Prior knowledge:
The structure holds two protein chains of two kinds. Chain A is mainly alpha-helical. Chain A is built from 21 helices and two strands.
Amino acid sequence: MRCAWLMAFALALPAAVAAAEARPVYPAPAGDSRALHEAAAGASCADCHPADAGRERARGASLRFSHRLHADVPGGCTACHALAAGLRPPAMAPGFGACAPCHAELVTRRRCEACHPARADGRLALEAASGPLRPRGGHTGEEHHAGWTRAHGPSARARAAECAVCHARAACDGCHRGVLRPMRTHPGDWALAHAAEARFSAERCAACHRAQSDCLRCHRQAGLGGLAPARDLRVHPAGFGVAHAGEARRNLRACAACHPEGDCVRCHGGSGIGLGLSPHPPGFRGRCALLRARNPRPCLKCHRAERLEVLCP
Amino acid sequence: MELRLGLLGLGYQTRTATGELLDRRRVTQLAELRVSELFSVGGLGLELALRFDTDLGLTRAPEAGEVLALELRAAALSWRAPGLELAFGRQLWLDELGFLALDGLRAELALECGLSARLSAGLQVRERTWLGEGLLELDGVEGDETPVPTLGAGLGYRWREVAVGVDYRRAVLWTDGWPLWEERVSGHLSVRLLERSVGFDAAGVFDLAQDRWERAWAQAGWRLPWAPEAGLRLGAAGLMARPLFAGDSIFNFFSPEAFWEARASLGASPPALGLSLAAAYQRRLYASGGAVDGLGLDCRWLVAPLRLGVAFDFEDGAAGRRWLLMPSLAWRGLEERLELEARLLVMQGRDPLAEQLSALTLGGSAGVGWRLGEVPRLLLTLELNGNRVSPLQTRALVVLDLGLAVGQGGTRF
């Protein structure tokens, strides 16, 4: 049975690879034009393409391009269609590199909609008759490869203006807050399985989830956490009260997901409160006056105003 | 003009502390409207986005209750001219200082010489404001209704493939004494060289209210020139970060540790094969000296009509030891209308606090979709999952996405 599955997979694989290679690109190539052009060496372009020089649109492509307006380019057709320059067959149509030298301003200002079909607000249309439009040739993921969905974060922050050429600002919000995205990002059953991942990589979760709303809302509804010791064991193991310091220093955001500030102050309220443990790091007294001057409200959650005058003059 | 209406229904089950299985249902309605050339005035535009969430299902905490939320995500008038964009109303954007939802005015000016300037002023959208929402507010304190007037400004310069910029934001609370809520400044540099085959990005954010660096990061990437059909990429990155809480939170006065991360990665993505391979090694250092080493492997292969994926993560160090493996296999047929997926998740963790933290789940799903372009589409998905706690769990998703677009060939700012 296993052999049959393997054989079926082996037979299907070449066809699948061929289908992937033949998927439409932008602009869509047609035929082995290199071989055709080599066979017609020495002939005039107009012999085979009598009407192309006057076309308003590039043939087979979805670009806003007028051959008629480019008819007088020095060098003629081969200035752009550099047949001898080794363009890979079958795509002998000039690419971005052929346009950029003359249209440097459009490139510099990211005016991609000058050539590419655009929507009413100027963003590029991503679905064209010749296939989907995807950037190619960038570094560190700007090329939208198969793993791009998971890898786009740093590039999106560093080159947001480039994203805006195709994507509306609401597009970030639509995915990062959507209900469709978690179905793809997280495997099924994640609601039960996420505990181990969240325990180790809370920062990763925080990239999308706001702890005090996303975590707390769900945990409350499911009755997890709370004051009952039996329930606490579902979140914290026995002995956690003594051992929690390192965990809190390593990732205080994870604690803040469930615990309001009052929980910490119950013990860490300083002299005379709880266990009398100060929550402040060493050296805090040196800069507390500055922080108090900027916003005394957090200080007043624990300290009386007259006491603050003494502690942070 | 673009109009988009979405209706999403999600149903799933979750296990409570007492072992009871709760049924949950969520209905989300989305409405988006984008108009260019409003009232036939060139450059005048309107963006409107609403989201309505309804959570239905049993709860074990009376205070949690059912969730009914209406969010006004965007409602802004804009005016665009060559080199200038003005927007007034509720708007959202992303920069080095983070996401910001603002009710107010934002202006962007871009000059021919490459200089650009940004200015924003208004009230931050907070959790308990009218039609507000809470995701964008920093963690740490219960939300309240105190308005937060915010002023932001930025300068940028772009020359060929080099971009630099600096941004500043100051926010105060609209109450006695105008206490400072947030004051940060950031700078960033982005460079692309050798026909964009080499890139370098770096940024830093300094918290003026706390008088310390909040985070700084740098990344460099190189698309290797050898074997271009293989799409080889080499990357390196470094990060310093410190937990950040809302301006009123006493958590800021505790001693959360900053951490440093260094990462090296190697990836390949031959476009002809639809294959993406990536491997990364990461080391994280905490101020106390603890360290965590991590290794990640990710493989995605689009071999129409199949989609194969394997992800593996391993971490070991101050936070304990953890590994996670997620293989998946999906098939899309009938012109991508029918999708079947099978996947497996295995993870195990061990740390000083929890000797055994493990999960083994097996899930599969089947979905049918009708897609006539980017929109409209109808998607029906049914998942079946199982693990040792809940042998059979289901999750169902229905999406009805309707869109209408009128007009084309517009000019972008």
